[in-house]
Task: structure prediction
Amino acid sequence: MNSVQSNERTGDRSVTVVRVADTQWHAVEDDRVVGRGDASHRPDGRLFVSVDAWHGPVFDRIAAALVADLPTPLYTVVDEADDESTTAWQRTGFTAGRREWGYLVPTDPEVTGLGAVRPPTGVTIVPAGEAAQAPLRALDHAVRAEVEAGAGWRTMPAEVLPRPAWSTMADPSKYAVAQESDRYVGLVRVAPLTRQPRIGLIAVRADRQRRGIARALLAHALGSLHRGGTASAWTEVDETNAAATALFEGIGARRAGTTLELVRR
Result:
């Protein structure tokens, strides 16, 4: 284990930062854990870090240990309204990389106007949990490759979840897909969280875009949530993604927060 000795004090004792695992750090004061640091690889390979500490000096020491122990670039996310957290990461050399808008999305088709939306001719929607896993995973890899060849997958929201390196799909049961003939051409991922479901991804193969498939997938996902008694869902959109912004704002989604992605290169 590696450690960093702190000259800062939370009371009258020094704080030591100890690397307790490959991706975990503890700040220890008088044999008591007073802060934690974590690192996690996202599906696109980027390394994200987080710090949980009550005191600014402890935060700084944990962040310094992360920076010293890990390769760059390093990434983290903060609520843009949280000036204290943003400033703390900036003290460690992190700068703004991109901005992501959070939206509250209504599910009622009377509000969204999606009640009459149907898939284009020849396309059917396979409900969540019913898609065949092999073609679903193939579609997931295909759309990720197309995104990376264009705007870059780093501009898309991604769940920070442990998973095998060969798999970018944590739970296939969360995905509904659009099927055309014997081919999957689009998908929507909804995480059925208790407090508020999260629309994590809507994607359509590049050669099948601008035909209304994404809108039909969204209508299906929101309609299913509405029938289950859920009034609204949550989603995030990169501020540069004009198409996604237009899609959600066009159905009455309300911007309710902003997240900054910070990077240290």
